[in-house]
Amino acid sequence: MFSRSTQFLQRLTIINSPRNLSFKQLNHIKPTINRNLAWFSGQSRKETFGGKLRRRLKNFFIVTIVGLGTFYGYRSYRRYRWFNEMSDSDKTIGAKPRVIVLGTGWGAVPLLKHIDTQKYEVVCVSPRNYFLMTPLLPSVSVGTVETRTVIESIRSLIGPRVKFVEAHCVNVDPEAKIITCSSDGEQTVSRGDDVKAILVPSRRTDGASSRIIKDSARVRPEFHMKYDILVVAIGSENNTFNTPGVEEHAHFLKELLDARRIRSAISDAFESAMTPTQTLAERKRLLHFVIVGGGPTGVEFAAELADLVREDLQIYFPHLVASDVKITLIEALDHILSMMDKKISDYTERHFHRENIEVLMNTFVKEVKQREVIIQLKDSDELKSLPCSVVVWATGIKARPLTNKLREIIGLNIQSNRMGLLTDPYLRVKGVDDGSIFALGDCATIQMPKLIDRIHSLFEEVDTEHRGALDVQQFRTLVEKKITEFPQVFK
Amino acid sequence: MFSRSTQFLQRLTIINSPRNLSFKQLNHIKPTINRNLAWFSGQSRKETFGGKLRRRLKNFFIVTIVGLGTFYGYRSYRRYRWFNEMSDSDKTIGAKPRVIVLGTGWGAVPLLKHIDTQKYEVVCVSPRNYFLMTPLLPSVSVGTVETRTVIESIRSLIGPRVKFVEAHCVNVDPEAKIITCSSDGEQTVSRGDDVKAILVPSRRTDGASSRIIKDSARVRPEFHMKYDILVVAIGSENNTFNTPGVEEHAHFLKELLDARRIRSAISDAFESAMTPTQTLAERKRLLHFVIVGGGPTGVEFAAELADLVREDLQIYFPHLVASDVKITLIEALDHILSMMDKKISDYTERHFHRENIEVLMNTFVKEVKQREVIIQLKDSDELKSLPCSVVVWATGIKARPLTNKLREIIGLNIQSNRMGLLTDPYLRVKGVDDGSIFALGDCATIQMPKLIDRIHSLFEEVDTEHRGALDVQQFRTLVEKKITEFPQVFK
User: Fold this and answer.
1) Does residue A469 belong to any structural domain of this protein?
2) Residue among A53, A168, A210 with most chain B CBs within 10 A, to mutate
């Protein structure tokens, strides 16, 4: 018994330790090495099928093991580093100047990714704990793209060194350098389901689980937070131009919840149209989709909707699609995509004509009702009614309440632009003397220095010979030196 | 000019038609064939790298073209057949007996897939236009599985020959053989967003697009439909055992919307706990998740939630997970998974203990409040309060209102089972004399014929020699003949 296990151990040692390989053993494993080498160099010799399969399987096995090992090793290392960095940044709280970034959109996220967390304590405050890939929203609203693929958790984006607080900033005190975040108990955030926060008595319909749930997972007490530097990147909200009924009856296309609602409304419209006792007029109304606003959002949604109808819904509702479905795009100007090149807007109009999307140009929407849209042609007093079911409102943006509040606090004589916060070319908000507030993105407008105000000093700077005139060479010098300062003029 | 094009045409003809191949040309293409054959038979000859690459690329190109051609050809053919079958079944409406199937769940869909549409005109009526893979709901509620992967459009499942109407059946008249579907304008269906249908004034919170939209895509007039055969497969609804507060404050886990709401509530709870001014007690309450019901749904959800916390949320909320998160499972009996084998429930309890899921056995929930659950131990009068945020209620099912209505119409003396419709072993609903109503799934209970009632006739049937006694052979004959009729006895 004992001798056998010793022998076994010996054999194990010999095989496992390469230094103890005998010459005979080397000869034994040589063909294997050669074969493997041959495989790597692309040459292959005559082999039996079984041998080949065994060799391939062995190689596959080795590659899999090594790959999995590398993957898990790397993952563990990543986690270890993540936790380390997190606790490091916890320890240094208070020692570094604090930067508060408001927002998790296109303005805030690139900044958060590149800010130097060794120099600053960075806190991100936003009511939305994910980054949303807004250009894909029209695709989400028709189901081409899945909802989860267009969002990314803000915590995984910004890493362990930046703190994130899901809260709604309602006030900024530029003197005391303090932001106030509201108690959010009643407020809704478009995370996909806002019914919890609506205070109506619980009701439940026959059989379905669709209820108003008043759980208490969302309880946010008010808090204040001091900052040394504040970055406002809170974006904008939908502009209804005070058109009556838009808030109540039209869908926006700005948040994930909007896209999900539109998707469900399209499905509802088709299923309603399939109800046996539906009248023809009602069916035509149900399948009339109206998009207001011929900008990129409206045009993209109209095109996606037409694709959905033609490619997918046609299969299940061939009769409806052939006779009743109608898509109308309403634009106030005389061209859609008017901010782009004439060629692009012409092409789009022709393409929409082929796709049976009706484009109403020079048309204003006067009111949105529950089952119709009231329109008015330019240079005409006549009002016309379009019976329809789903209305998507994509006419543009306006400043959020917090932006306007901040403008008022600073002073409307300095912050005179109603579209957003005026900043200097370094994105510092105008009227904040210590330069502690920055603004970027949709909520900000850069006020470029006017060339005309400094024309005299510029001239003198370049006119080195004090001749009172510039030659070509001097003018070139002027342009080259000042292009970064006046990009709007010299580009 | 003319001669050149003739020559060109001739050359084309020669090359394109294999019959006109000259011997020289054959010699020219022979090596290619040989090489390709060699590739198929697994032999390879010494080749230059460039030649090999060219050959591989050519093969790849051919395979791609052929593959794409086959795919698109097959798709077009499928579509063509689909439309053909659809219009065929439109033409024969009224000529065949009509089968109406109520429901799109586990009972209805397999039936709809196998029913012979040549013999019957089949109509499916359900308020839900998709099939839901219910066992995956716990995974959806924690985000392991994406919502869209657990549902499948009912129209694509049942094919073009079955008509589908999204409607809510509210009444059945077994005498006139007519079903009534309600006007669905006010009713909500859990398609993912039910806010449209709730009639509260439109309100909108600062900045977010979370509004109540009253669009008019869901307008369903009431209609009646005659049937020759009715199949009731409407399933069941959640049983609250009349516990106060469950409807208002607990989440169910039965429809897709429930899963989505739970997911959003978990996220809310963690974000609320991260708010800077949150007290310790409130943080512990926010991160206390309570699951009521130790059946498969409750156990699976508890396990998924524990996985989510340990594997994913731990990265972003390490301090919270380490100290404050708590999961409690409440079960009224003395074991969880009590309907399964003792070994399974023991293993689950041990595993939950390791996973830090607290299991409260022999405990009844007396009331669910917005921030707490009131529990009572068996054999005790003392009430105890568990402060918590998200409560998931998974205690079992009960009959839907339509099931009970149908039971009343037929007569409660025949339909005496409160769990659902009593049927005979052929799934015919008891008390419907012409056998025109069938029921299956959660809404039905099969009433097996009682062996004791027919013991006399059975005995006489087998006792061929009228001895008044059975030998082993005769008893075996009895079992073999009657096993299909009395599966509950002879299995």
Assistant:
1) yes
2) A210
